Amino acid sequence: MANISLAQFLEAGVHFGHKAYRWNPKMFPYIYMERNNIHILDLVQSAQLLKQANNYLQSAAEQKKTFLFIGTKRQASTLIAQEAKRCNSYYVNHRWLGGMLTNWVTLKSRIVRLKVLEQQEVDEVFKLLPKKEASLRKTELDKLRRDLDGVKHMENLPDVAIVIDQKREITAIRECRKLGIPIVSILDTNCDPDLVDIPIPGNDDAVRSIKLILKSLTDHILLGQSKT
Q1: Architecture of 6-101+157-227 per CATH?
Q2: Predicted local confidence at residue 208, as pLDDT
Q3: Where in the chain is the domain with CATH 3.40.50.10490?
Q4: Looking at CB atoms within 10 Å, which of 21, 102, 151, 224 has the fewest?
Q5: Model confidence over 85-100: pLDDT tens digits?
Q6: CATH code reported for the domain at 104-149
Q7: What does each C-alpha distance from 29 to 42, 44, 56, 75, 110 come to in angstroms?
Q8: DSSP for 47-93?
C-alpha cells in the first residue's frame, strides 16, 4: 500500500497547528516552526508516525482485534462513521456519554433498549399506541440511535481506540487509559502526547487533513483484515 507523500500532507493542510499561544509545550518535539503566530508541524515526523500507526493497526487487524473510532466534532463526525463502517468497526460520532466504556454494563442495557425500540418500529407497534406514548418512544429511539448506533453491535470492550481531537474527547481518552485500551490519535499542537500510545501529529480541525489520515488508517485495518 502506497505511503502518503509529503506533498499530499501539505495539500491537505496537515501541517497547520493552532495559534502559538494555545500550544502545549509537550508538543514541542513535533513542531517545525512558528509562522505568523501559528505553529507549523514537522511533516516528516507526521509521516513517520502515521506509518507506525498504520503498521500497528494492520497488525492488530491481522490478530482480529476490534476498533472503536471516536470523533464527535462537526468536521469529523461524518468521516468517523464512514471509515468505521468501511472496516466493519464501531464508532461514536455524536456525543461521548460518560462511562461508555468504564460503565459498560449500563451501556449494554441502553443498547438492549435501542434494539427493542428498533424492533417495535419495524413491527409498527408505535402505530398501535396512543399518540403521546408513540411520540415519546420515537423521541427516545432517535436519541438512542444518535448516541449509540455506532456501538449497538459491540459485544465487548474494544481492543484499540482511534481518536480525533484529543482535547474534545478527553473523557473517552481517560476511560481508555483507565481500562488499558491502546489509543491512536491525531494530535494538534494543543494536545498532550503523553496521553496516547501512538500519536500522529497533525491538523485535527481541517476536514481534508482528518480525511487523509483517517482513510490511511482504515486502509491498513482493511489490509490486516484481508489477511485473516
Answers
A1: 3-Layer(aba) Sandwich (3.40)
A2: 83
A3: 6-101+157-227
A4: 21
A5: 999 999 999 999 989 9
A6: 1.10.287.610
A7: 9, 12, 22, 26, 43
A8: HHHHHHHHHHHHHHHHTT--EEEE--SHHHHHHHHHHHHHTT-EEE-
